[in-house]
Amino acid sequence: MADSILGGGALAPISEVSHVDFSPVDLGASAEHSELDRKDFFAEQEGVSFAGTHLIVDLWGASRLDDIDFIEETMRACVDAAGATLLHIHLHHFTPNQGVSGVAVLAESHISIHSWPEYGYAAMDIFMCGDAQPQRAVDVLREAFQPERVDVGEHLRGRR
Hints:
CATH class: Alpha Beta
Number of strands: 9
Distance between the termini: 51 Å
Shape: globular
Order of helices and strands: EHEEEHEEEEHE
Largest sheet: 7 strands, antiparallel
Number of helices: 3
């Protein structure tokens, strides 16, 4: 029990846990910080004002859902494609062969994943505010994971 994270009996032994953890970006008082603030605003589309677009994405029959490095690379590609700004990624690999859960924290919100490779299934959230285009991230997911089926639900958060 001494080698368990935080000593909790319900937690995985340290030998069975792996993490990909990147330090947060230092935004300071730079011009880049001002640009990030500008991108995080209520949008207006077809006369509707809202905080951001939240996509709920289910991938079925998908591959590489237990490959933490590939998932991290794919999340970065989603951020780039959507025109978002990555602040931090944290992924947890449940070993052996039990999937990955994690989040990419963005200046514009987040992308999260929970995968069940034994079922070829991943549940993902893509929530972005401002100028970011979360639908472009779905195209990256299709290309990367080659799912047999993709279900996407869209919700406009913070409708006024």
